TrEMBL record:
It comes from Gluconobacter cerinus. Residues 1-21 form the signal peptide. The keyword Protein biosynthesis does not apply. Pfam families: NUP (PF06516). Keywords: Signal. This is Purine nucleoside permease. The keyword rRNA-binding does not apply.
Length: 352
């Protein structure tokens, strides 16, 4: 009996020691997520991350267990990260016991190609959906059946711009709704963020203003940078041109049931939103607190009269403006969340 009691005592000590050794959790109130940065995080030419770091004074570095990338933070509980190693940085952060993400508001940021039918270079859009443009069927456009606009269409569908009729094309899936390529965000929160930031002045650039003149017949492409609501389409393929822009417009409408409008295209959004859904299902994050804010660094097709190969990848002239306006649009939301954290910690804005 004495030996048994001694064993219980030892077990108690070990449990107490484990409790004492449990790491202190830092509560991340707002987390700004960028995709990349060129050079240093501050002090040189900006990438997607630098304006956020400098203007929000994210001066302190904090480690993430298991990866080289570090968080940055300020004294108010605003954190930032550039996912320079991709999803692994996001997963490592969620699994790191030093951080509490229970009430974290996420702002996934970045630059994009912009739809000239909707907005101009330097414009910024709060998304209501992130739409996945990766998993689909593809036929060379030169060999598509007569009457098809392009050779891209949904797996399980019979032709472009239609939903699949049979979910069994995905094996274990039994409901066509499960095949959706539209990841809905919290639209109440997105509307709240837009309304909070919509009067923020957007920067412009004389060189970009001059380039806008080439967009005859595209009135929205000729306007100064604007702040709007509109959807983000993510695809690993770096596509370009009017045919693909038409596909993107219809693909977004198809999967959002005519409720969404294609505005921005990039290569990361779909991957990270799928990651966030996995992390939410496992209980690490709250999907209702996720926002996506993208800005246009270039158009996703050439202006009239310009060969397609001369405009693809033409991001450099508009990048700095897109970095600038992206942070300008998001900063009022960050400040509001921090200023009234006692309320927003438990009450998500836009839910009423």
């Amino acid at each position: 009996m004495k030996r048994f009691n001694a064993g219980l005592a030892l077990a108690g000590l070990l449990c107490a020691g484990s409790a004492l050794a449990a790491p202190h959790k830092e509560e991340i109130k707002v987390l700004v997520v960028a995709n990349w940065e060129v050079g240093a995080d501050k002090g040189d030419e900006p990438g997607e991350y630098q304006d956020w770091v400098e203007r929000l004074h994210l001066d302190e570095e904090r480690p993430i267990r298991g990866v080289q990338e570090k968080l940055r933070r300020n004294a108010d509980g605003v954190y930032g990260i550039a996912l320079k190693s991709g999803s692994i940085d996001l997963h490592a952060l969620a699994l790191d016991p030093h951080y509490d993400l229970t009430h974290t508001y996420w702002i996934f940021t970045g630059i994009s190609g912009v739809n000239p039918n909707v907005a101009s270079v330097g414009s910024v859009a709060w998304a209501r959906w992130v739409v996945d443009g990766d998993a689909l069927r593809e036929i060379d456009d030169r060999t598509v059946p007569k009457g098809w606009p392009y050779g891209l269409y949904a797996i399980g569908a019979d032709k472009p711009d239609t939903l699949p009729a049979n979910a069994n094309h995905y094996g274990s899936v039994t409901d066509v709704a499960e095949l959706s390529k539209a990841y809905p965000l919290n639209q109440g929160l997105a509307n709240w963020a837009f309304n909070l930031s919509k009067h923020t002045p957007m920067a412009d650039d004389p060189a970009i203003a001059e380039r806008r003149k080439a967009w005859k017949g595209f009135p929205n492409a000729q306007k100064p940078p604007m702040l709007i609501m509109g959807e983000t389409l993510g695809a690993l393929r770096y596509w370009h041109g009017p045919s693909r822009n038409e596909w993107a417009e219809k693909w977004v409408k198809l999967w959002t049931k005519d409720q969404g409008q294609f505005v921005m295209t990039n290569e990361e959004s779909q991957t990270y939103q799928l990651d966030m859904r996995t992390l939410a299902r496992l209980g690490y994050v709250d999907l209702n607190r996720v926002m996506v804010l993208r800005s246009g660094s270039n158009f996703d097709m050439p202006p009239p009269g310009v060969p397609i190969t001369e405009s693809i990848g033409d991001e450099a002239p508009g990048q700095k403006l897109a970095f600038d306006n992206n942070e300008r649009a998001g900063e009022p939301v960050v400040h509001e969340l921090i200023a009234h954290w006692a309320t927003y910690r438990t009450h998500i804005p836009g839910q009423d």
